[in-house]
Amino acid sequence: MTDIAIRTQDILDRLGAGNPFVADGDLVCRSPIDGSEIGRLRSHTADEAADVIGRAQAAFEQWRSVPAPVRGQFVRELGELLREHKDDLGALVSIEAGKIVSEGLGEVQEMIDICDLAVGLSRQLHGLTIATERPGHRMMEQWHPLGVVGVISAFNFPVAVWSWNAALAFVCGDAVVWKPSEKTLLTALGCQALAAEAGRRAGVPEGLSAVLLGDYRIGEVLVDDPRVPLVSATGSTRMGKQVAPRVAARLGRTLLELGGNNAAIVAPSADLDLAVRGIVFSAVGTAGQRCTSLRRIIVHESIKDDLVTRLKAAYETLPIGSPLEASTLVGPLVDQPAFDAFGAAVEQATADGGDLVTGGTAADVEGDGFYVHPAIIDMPKQTEIVKAETFAPLLYVLTYSDLDEAFALHNEVAQGLSSSIFTLNVREAEQFMSVVGSDCGIANVNIGPSGAEIGGAFGGEKETGGGRESGSDAWRAYMRRSTNTVNYSTELPLAQGVEFV
Fold it and tell me: What is annotated as the active site (predicted)?
């Protein structure tokens, strides 16, 4: 076993997840850090997956009658365990997803934060009292638990996305069955071990939280099962277009968090020191493998040369290497296909007339990981490769002369997740956030598009899928609404003045 595999085993032991190497394992777990094997797990069969969903349904039927504030105690226990094991789980995220140390720890902190939010929410799952036209009547709405929630997550946020869904679903009275990415199975087992321990402490029904291991075929079992009224799927737009019609065919619900092609408009009044810091993190954090990663700069022609010069200088000093080293800022791409896609996009962009400002080549790092020098490409126009999402540290530079042109370039892509503008002009900022500006679900001013807090609803429009997770009123997706009218009079008036005698 490699040093990384031994460290992984030690972490899983401390998390209570057991041996990552099982007999007859068909799912090979590799670290993108050096390509080494760190686990080998066995896929669930379709029948086993159906049984897991059945146990979750049985658990839901008990859990839904537990008062919501009591359900919150389960999530409180989970949050405390995450605090206790933050360093270990953060390190496991770095080992399995390739995130730098700070980002791995930050992802676990995001889990802790959503648990805190959900515990408070467990006492605020409120409906409305509604004015009624009929005397002696009261009309109101209530929110009730929905059922088994299926969660399908991607490799790039291997634990946080599960927690966004699970923490809210649990306090809303639902069970959760999680199908993680095949690229990040061990982090899922670590989370499940902590959830199981929290469940034992809180006395929750067995099967309330479960993990399904396997490829897309196991995902299809979850997607197609009528006992799963909500499927929350995070991944590519291509994946979402496969999931959505399958769930719709059985009249289920979907919560989709799909691709992004996020831009930052840089206006003439921008604080360029601030803009450069925001752009660099948003573009190269997680090696450009976030759905919120910055992929396009739309900069005013009067400051383009200055901005590009500053960015080039910043890019050429970025430490690239193992994400386990504290000094590293850019870790590996997840695998060979991601590396190949990066190279193909650079080649196509330059063939389209783009000028490669910096980067775009493989980085020399020991081991069999896939490391690259983050690229900046100055584009003459917004070509098809610019409009496509390449999951890698690839930043395109576009130029505008007036704000309407900038908005048009910004909104021209099919995706609509996150966006930003750097400006000190309040009119430009307000226009960007208005109906005529950004068409994305997230629109920021003087910060990049990446790095959302859990207090706000997270999600996007257009081919990003329209879903909302995390804060604000995103909890409503995990519940069903019931409108109630109570007649406390001795009369029976009908609505709209209808007479029936």
Answer: 257
- Catalytic hit among 77, 110, 257, 428: 257
Question: What pLDDT is attached to residue 246?
Answer: 98
Could you report the per-residue pLDDT of 484-499, keeping only the tens digit for each? 999 999 999 999 999 9
Output the 3-class SS for 436-451: CCCCCCEEEECCCCCC
Three-state SS at 356: strand
The strand ranges marked E within 107-181 are 129-130, 137-145, 148-152, 175-179
What's the mean pLDDT when you consider all of the chain?
Answer: 97
Find the domain containing 411 and state its range: 262-445
324-358 confidence digits (pLDDT tens): 999 999 999 999 999 999 999 999 999 999 999 99
Residues 79, 224: one domain?
yes
Residues 210 and 333 both lie in one domain:
no
Among candidates 188, 106, 177, 122, which has minimal Cα distance to 154?
188
Total length of the chain: 501
Residues 6+ apart with CB under 8 A from 59: 175, 204, 205, 206, 207, 208
**316 counts as catalytic:** no
